[in-house]
Design a protein that fits this description.
104 residues, mainly alpha
């Protein structure tokens, strides 16, 4: 997946999470912290990926940056889903489209 596509998809999800955080009264700071953590991990991954073509040193960090981004994104998705007090099939299924689309 191209870095620009990854950025657009992630930005859309981060905007959704920010909108949810705006409406929360409890747990808002935790959600905002996880959004910032995921954005930082995404930016690091994209930077490593874009510089890996020129730098062997950057190439050695791409896999770890990707794992870290996947982990923080999954953690953010779990946190967003916990904001919905619904259980069972009525709960939105965000994890598969967001996480798998970002890394397919």
């Amino acid at each position: 997946m191209q870095p620009n596509t990854l950025m657009k998809q992630a930005d859309a999800f981060f905007d959704l999470a920010e909108g949810i955080a705006d409406r929360l009264t409890k747990g808002q700071s935790l959600l905002r912290a996880k959004i910032a953590k995921a954005e930082f991990a995404r930016d690091a991954y994209v930077a490593m990926q874009s510089h890996s073509k020129q730098s062997p040193l950057a190439r050695s960090f791409v896999a770890e940056a990707r794992r870290r981004y996947e982990r923080t994104l999954k953690d953010l998705v779990r946190t967003v889903l916990k904001c919905f007090p619904i259980s069972g099939e009525a709960r939105p299924q965000l994890s598969r489209p967001v996480v798998h689309a970002a890394f397919s």
